[in-house]
Design brief:
Layout lengths: L5 H4 L2 H9 L4 H31 L4 H8 L3 H29 L1 H18 L6 H29 L5 H29 L4 H5 L2 H12 L6 H6 L3 H11 L2 H7 L18 H23 L1 H7 L5 H26 L1 H21 L5 H20 L4 H5 L5 H29 L2 H22 L8 H5 L5
Helix pairs in contact: 3-7, 3-8, 3-10, 5-6, 5-7, 5-20, 6-7, 6-10, 7-20, 8-16, 14-18, 14-20, 14-21, 15-16, 16-17, 16-18, 17-18, 17-21, 20-21
Keywords: Membrane, Transmembrane, Transmembrane helix
Family: Belongs to the major facilitator superfamily. Sugar transporter (TC 2.A.1.1) family.
Organism: Geodermatophilus africanus
């Protein structure tokens, strides 16, 4: 195996020419159909994540009344999926690097389908808590396999948009579930158990859609199964990634490699960036109505809806621009801007409500935009042998941030006040900006082999 970096052996112009000439005929058509199918079933997993987190909101009061939940149990059930993701993501990522992508993404959707189906039969708080925890573990496993697998099959020139599309799917799943749950619980006689269990139908469809999908050729190559890798790559992978495949190293990945001299920067950046991006988002988005009300807004609920709408717009804009402007341009400046916006909100305690709302809308748009990159970078900067483990570990760290932001914000507002709380959020955003200024790489237009090597030199 040559030790010369791929981009020195073969100019980037050759890669672009390969990407521009994808071939024709039945083979090219079959590859496009396969890619569409792969994108659909993997992005569908992220839609499910948003769905199970969104569906619980409009049902929470009904569930609490029916099961006679204490405040503690109600909070645990609401947070169970997040706890499960924290557990499942690193385990799933490690297993997918050891056993392969295919068995893991089939197992996790099967586990989710079974767990989701059990929601139809819930009759006690403990059972509901256990089921939601199990569903979260399944979604966490999906984090560790979904993004890596999509990255490994994506054409270089579309990889950023496809990985970013996972974030659009999450926001869409959350909003669809919230609206769906609200309409069903208020306008039908369906039980809350059935409404919660609606995720089973989508999960079953995704399970069927994944049957027969192949193993990742990049993973096969990384474990030395070269003949199988070449055969599957020729049949399924985009032509602009075929040559790059043979520049993968044959290495056995270990969890400890995430903290090695070669890869610690990728681990610190992806984990720290993701943590700092989601911590203020989950805090502010979860309590948007109450936060805005403290600033004197007459209709805080409408303001909260506006924040969600602007967040979705920010994700879509980032996905459309990511393969044109590059990763760093959409990662670093927006974080500094959001830190400044939160600082202004925290310091200008007497600001008119309209100004405060405008500032929160600006934050929501740009924060959601750079949050999109949290799903792009892990799939690119970790090599194949630890891509799953790296993505899963970063996802787990991010859930710590989400939980901390959600748990601590109301306590901070009550004890410190809204202004100091927003200043703390500004510090977290600034920390993410500084980390990204230092470590965020530019991976636009690079093959996965190139992108994974940016921290190695």
């Amino acid at each position: 195996m040559s030790t010369t970096p791929y981009w020195q052996e073969r100019p980037m112009s050759d890669l672009r020419n390969t990407a521009a000439d994808p071939g024709g005929g039945a083979a090219a058509v079959n590859k496009r159909r396969f890619l569409i199918r792969m994108i659909t079933v993997l992005i569908g997993g992220m839609f499910l994540d948003g769905y199970i987190l969104g569906i619980i909101g409009p049902l929470s009061s009904t569930i609490a009344e029916d099961l006679q939940l204490s405040s503690l149990m109600e909070g645990l059930i609401a947070a169970a999926a997040l706890i499960g993701i924290f557990v499942g993501a690193p385990i799933g990522g490690w297993v997918t690097d050891r056993l392969g992508r295919k068995p893991v993404f089939m197992f996790d959707i099967a586990l989710f389908t079974v767990a989701s189906g059990l929601q139809f039969f819930v009759d006690s708080p403990g059972l509901l808590l256990a089921i939601r925890l199990l569903m979260g573990i399944a979604i966490g496993i999906e984090y560790g396999v979904g993004w890596p697998m999509l990255a490994e099959f994506s054409p270089t020139h579309l990889r950023g948009r496809l990985l970013g599309g996972m974030t659009i799917a999450w926001y869409s799943g959350f909003m669809v579930a919230f609206l769906f749950g609200y309409l069903l619980i208020n306008n039908t006689d369906l039980s809350w158990q059935f409404i919660l269990g609606t995720s089973t139908f989508l999960a079953a469809a995704l399970f069927l859609g994944r049957i027969g999908l192949p193993e990742s050729p990049r993973w096969l190559w990384s474990v030395g199964r070269r003949d199988e890798a070449r055969a599957l790559a020729d049949k399924y992978m985009p032509d602009d990634t075929l040559a790059d495949l043979e520049h993968e190293d044959v290495l056995k990945g270990t969890f400890g490699m995430l903290f090695s001299k070669q890869h610690w920067r990728a681990t610190v950046f992806t984990s720290g960036f993701w943590f700092c991006a989601v911590t203020p988002y989950f805090a502010i988005a979860t309590f948007a109505a109450s936060v805005l009300e403290t600033y004197g807004l007459d209709d805080p609920l409408a303001g909260g809806v506006g924040l969600s709408a602007l967040a979705t717009a920010g994700v879509v804009a980032t996905v459309l621009l990511i393969d044109k402007l590059g990763r760093r341009a959409l990662t670093i400046p927006p974080q500094w801007l959001c830190a400044a916006v939160l600082a202004v909100i925290g310091l200008w305690t007497g600001a008119p409500p309209a100004v405060v709302l405008t500032l929160f809308l600006v934050f929501s748009f740009f924060n959601a935009g750079y949050n999109t990159l949290t799903g792009v970078y892990p799939g690119e900067v970790f090599p194949t042998e630890i891509r799953g483990a790296g993505t899963g570990f970063a996802a787990a760290v991010s859930r710590v941030g989400a939980a901390l932001g959600t748990f601590l914000l109301p306590i901070s507002i009550e004890t410190l006040g809204t202004g100091p709380t927003m200043l703390i959020a500004a510090v977290v955003a600034a920390a993410g900006a500084g980390l990204s200024q230092w470590l965020a790489p530019e991976t636009k237009g690079m093959s996965l082999t190139e992108a994974a090597a940016v921290y190695s030199h």
